[in-house]
Amino acid sequence: MYIVTIKNKTVLYIGVTNDLRRRTYEHEYSLIPGFTQKYNCNFLIYYEHFQDIEDAIKREKQIKKWRREKKEKLIKEFNPNLEFLNERIYDTL
Which letter does DSSP use for residue 30 in this model? Predict the structure, then answer.
């Protein structure tokens, strides 16, 4: 489960993938048609790992229901400086 944003961090997109490195690359280079391509959601700012895809999907749906403020709090607890994590993901996964 992951969250990507745009350069000025005003738009959040929450998604699920079984390959975060690949998906981050796809977002960074706008290779996925739809919302993220239209709004240039190219920057990873949050992620969680799950062993079971069903758990990841449940978490994605849970967070999508949250108000913006709660999402921002979650992101800042994980990534206090709101850094773009794309390069970190490429290097660590």
Answer: T
